[in-house]
Amino acid sequence: MMRARGLAFWLLLLPPVLWLGLLVIVPHVEIAVLSFSERVGPRLYEFGFANYLEFLKEPLYWRTYARTAIMSVLVTAITLVVAFPVAFYIAKAAQGATKAVLFLLCLLPFWASELVRTLGWMILLRETGLVSALLQATGLAAGPVELLYNDGAVILGLVYGGLLFMVVPLVNALDSLDFSLVEAGFDLGGSRIDVLRRIVVPHAMPGIVAGSIVVFMLTVGNFVTPALLGGKNGLWFTEQIYAQFITRFNWPQGAAFGLLLLVLSSAIVWIGLRLTGQGFGETMRRG
Amino acid sequence: MTNRRFNLALAGALAALCLATGAEAQPLRLLTWADYAPKDIVDQFTKETGIAVEVTLSNNEEMISKLRATQGSGFDLAQPSQDRILGPQQEFGIYKPLDLAQIKGEQFIASMLEATKKNTTVAGKVYGVPHIWGTDGLVVNTKLAPNVKDYSDLCGAGLENKVSFRTKRPTLIAFAFAAGMDPFASYGNKAAYTAMMEKVGATLAACKKNVKFFWEGKDPLLAGLRSGEIVAAMAWDTGGWKLNGELPDIKFVAPKAGALGWIDTFAIPARGRNDKGAYAWINFNMRPEIAAKVAASAGNFTASKGADALTQGKLKQQFQESFPQAAIDNIKWYPAVPAGIEDIEGKVLDRLKAGS
What we know:
The complex is a heterodimer. By secondary structure, chain A is mainly alpha-helical. In chain A, 77% of the residues lie in helices and 3% in strands. The radius of gyration of chain A is 23 Å and the shape is globular. Chain A starts with a helix and ends with a helix. The model of chain A has no long low-confidence stretch (mean pLDDT 88). Chain B folds into 2 domains: 26-133 and 262-325, D-Maltodextrin-Binding Protein, domain 2 (3-Layer(aba) Sandwich), CATH 3.40.190.10; 135-261 and 328-354, Periplasmic binding protein-like II (D-Maltodextrin-Binding Protein, domain 2, 3-Layer(aba) Sandwich), CATH 3.40.190.10. In chain B, the strands form 4 sheets. In chain B, strands 7, 8, 9, 10, 11, 13 and 14 form a 7-stranded mixed beta sheet that branches. In chain B, β1 (28-32), α2 (39-49) and β2 (53-57) form a beta-alpha-beta unit. The N and C termini of chain B lie far apart (83 Å). Mean pLDDT of chain B is 89; it is low at 17-24. At the A-B interface, α3 and α11 of A face α3, α4 and α14 of B.
């Protein structure tokens, strides 16, 4: 009996172990090994730190790295600010069918692929696009307006892409908020700000943290949106990785960049958890 | 129904199945450029030889990267440009030498075949034969940007946010020529080449105010030119002529500094499994009547001897307008890129793309 259960246990454990091992751990180990190899001649590679030194020496690379990090944090913050009222309305104000419909409306755009959604933004924002035409027709702009190919467009696209992943955990977290607590807060003379700051936000914290982690991870590793909406100055770090692997044939350098991106996102998530005083495990359970 | 009849039918079905699988056993996996393998040509090839063709569209860098990732397997025939074979072959060994006895050399324009063979020879073995050729130059909306005659004119005043080029090596080469330098002469001298590329990089950085976007695929570029959002671009002749057919104001201009001439080749990946099919495809494609059809589909020219006479009037007329004899003589043909050169260029391009 014991042995049979043991067997079932190991069999059940097999898929996740294989999944993690073959698709996550093995590739990362390989990437790590690759990132420490230096090209010394045609088909000759040696162990060394040149790829990481290159990253530190060349301002271009770490600037892109820092830019990607800062913009990703910004995108996460904006997404949170936009998603919070939406989530609050869905969780607390909307009732019955309205609730389901509103939730569905949030979900709907994600039935199309990311590429299609991004191309949709391009149609809207380009110089000969819909928004530009509208602005001209209403007399708000004298000539064609180019809204694409700048950082604003990238942030817009990324916030749009991350919205759902922020709304869902927030709705989950806010759902359990007992409204009598809010009323008690008002009864005790708290202002709207006080109630939001000391009752609603602390209650929603696990949702906020979970949503922020997901949105941040998706943003920092995004490739399509910055590549298509971004301008001639707006390189995302993932584009650097792609360039090293595909157009420069420099796999060790690309591998080093990939590993650095992993370190960056892990570090920022860790800092975020520290600053908000949340445990990772708790967040994942409640979020 | 008698048992015997049933057996007969079964045997017949089995035989048919064997024949069918025999014919389709080894498809030819072709790694090529858009429009190089139009459907009707593929169908005709399959009908003649019984070999099915699986087409994968790509570009020079992706071809090298794909083949490198698999050490030359996954495809039976690739079509890199002639200057991009030597370096990657030395570095990654992704191709196998061609057996020239299997290729009908008499179907090629002799001078082009010889030049390509010479440029793609590594350690005494030939790795590529020519297929399609064309040039990189300027696609200009002559009404909106009448003064663009050379690459450097893309950076001129009055074109802010209205031009486009690629962040790829041809751009660096072109702007070096436009500044009166000869990058090809410095291929052998890394220090001189680095200095030259850095100079070009600075020119291009200053030119960025004119760039609307750096184009990657040709479709967004053509859309931009069509709508007038872009008035001048460095691009392939074929794109210019295609637009010229729709909008006569848009022309392909051979730049003063010289158009850049490229030749796309046939090369066999190191672990290709269907060499027979690959050689059959090469010989089939170099037949003048087939080559003329493919050339028309790609909007370019072919290395097939005699296909020229079969090319339709429109393309010929556009070619003559864009390329007077002096411009033809001024075409800069890419010499083979030695290993290491692309690292220098890569850094300059990265910096250009990332910007301030």
